[in-house]
Amino acid sequence: MAQTVTELRNEIRIAVDRFERERAATFTKEDLAAVCDAVGYEIETTGRLPPKAEMRAGILWKIGAVEQAHPENAPSSFRKDELKAILAAIQ
Question: Is 20 helix (H, G, I), strand (E, B) or coil?
Answer without folding.
Answer: coil
